[in-house]
Amino acid sequence: STDEITQNIVLEAASVHEDVTVTATGLPTPVEQTSAAVTLIPDLDLATTVGISDALRQSPGVDVVQQGQMGGLTSLFVRGGDSDANKVLIDGIPAEDVGGTFDFGTVSSTGQAGLEIYRGPNSVLYGSDAGSSVVNLETPRGSDPKPVVNYSGDAGNFHTYRDEISLSGAHRKLDYYTAFSRFDTGNALPMDEYHSATAAANVGFDILANTQVRFTIRNADSAAGVPGPFDFQGESAASKQSDQDLYSGLTIQNTTLGNWHNLARYGIARKREQFNTFYPAGMCLSDANGGDYYGNTVTIRGANGYMATGRAILEYTYGCPAYPGTYPQPEDPLNSDRDELYYQTDYVFPHRIAALFGFRYENERGSYYYPSYDLGAKTQRTNFEYTLQFSGDIKSRLFYSAGGALEKNHVYGIAGTPRIGLVYQPVFPVGKWMHGTRIRANVATGVVEPSLSAGLSSLFTELQQAGDATDIAKFHIGSIGPERSRTLDFDVDQN
Questions:
Q1: N or C: which end of the chain has fewer CB within 10 A?
Q2: Closest CA to 52 of 34, 66, 38
Q3: 290-324: b (≥16 Cβ within 10 Å) or e
Q4: Please, which residues have CB within 8 angstroms of residue 196's CB and are 6 or more apart in sequence?
Q5: How far apart are CA 114 and CA 153, in angstroms?
Q6: Cα–Cα dist 376/133, whole Å
Q7: Residue 315 bridge partners (DSSP)
Q8: Tell me: the pLDDT tens digits for 1-57?
Q9: How confident is the model over 322-381, as pLDDT tens digits?
Q10: pTM value?
Q11: Max Cα-Cα span within the chain
Q12: Does residue 62 carry a pLDDT above 80?
């Protein structure tokens, strides 16, 4: 009774959590009011992972296929769509190669504020390549009034280790975030080492109370061994693939009178791949070609018990040992560049009716070069897209979105992509059994532009390069067209 006792009591205000998506409609929309299938993956799910592949695998209707071990080519297949039918956005910047291909195995979890997966076509808002899904990645923003430094490191078997450091904060009108990580592993096979280094930054500045400018950049450099089918060869090929990926954008947006929003963004993507065979692994043996390099003698047992014993070819030559080939053999499988200018204006009318208009200009350049086979080609594509969309609700019970886009693609010409979505809540969610019913319906179309190899090797291109205008006119052969997708979603959510 004679002591002084001090107790520090902290009262924490209760908060209401709401999941909001931007990918579905182009405007911040609660997930419950979205007609499309959207999965939000928070940053906490990525905190203890090296990449994003495992997080993507947990989404329904999604298949992630990885070749080999850590660092191997990783492809995404959504609802049976091809791996080149996914629109990948990094801070709003298209990140896929020319033609839609994207390797998720080189994407680190460093500098990720979370993932958003839109399952279904959405070429209305994002143009070509959004044929089966849209994957949106965002870089975190600084918010603490004082600088915050975070460091994490871990290590494991196969000579695996990882270090990551980030710096973030906010000061008056400026907010900033930057991060860097390095990951190394030897994997479990000879000649299969993998390493990657990722740097990311997000800097925002409030020019005025209603006008903000933001700069983002993300750079990833990685290299992985390519041992080949080790179980069939019994020996690893002496090959390596390297990737250098850079994404950057500058965005300015303004909000007037609280309901008129304008956004302009200029973004770039620079992607480089190199493949190098350092020396011919295996043993030179005589064959029909005069001689090639073979692996070890191995026995393969099938699921039905059938066995086969032999040696698989590791490296083809013009006839070793007399013509072993020239090593190392460098190749540039793919170079992909994209510059994009995007403008969006949206206005909220009375009765919560929102109208959105968007314009997109893309300049794409792609090339590949295989000196071993004397093959190489390059292309340049200029694309335009116009988007108009309306969304809103009626008495907070019926939510709707309807829109369409008209795209002029350099390869296949003009294509239209409409989309209509409805959400109806006949029974509002309350704290009773089986109270809360939501009915969703979504109709959408998507287009995918031809990949670089498909566009440059089409029959029309081959005849055109050969100067065979006669057969082009005789058989009415035109340039390769777009791949189209059409989906109808209908589901009932019941609490």
A1: N
A2: 66
A3: ebbbbbeebeeeeeeeeeeeebbbbbebebbeeeb
A4: 71, 106, 108, 182, 183, 220, 221, 222, 223
A5: 20
A6: 31
A7: 293
A8: 677 777 778 777 766 667 888 888 888 888 888 888 899 998 888 888 899 999 999
A9: 888 888 888 888 899 999 999 999 999 988 899 999 999 999 998 888 776 677 778 899
A10: 0.89
A11: 108
A12: yes
Residue reference for tokens 């006949």: 426
Give the tokens for residue 176: 């900033």
Mean pLDDT value across residues 477-493:
88
**Count of positions (residues) in the chain:** 495
Cβ contacts of 365 within 8 Å, gap of 6 or more: 98, 335, 336, 337, 338, 378, 379, 380, 381
Residue type, position 475, single letter: F
Residue type, 168: S
| CB contact burial 458-481 (16+ within 10 A = b; e otherwise) | beebebeeeeeeeebeeeeeeebe
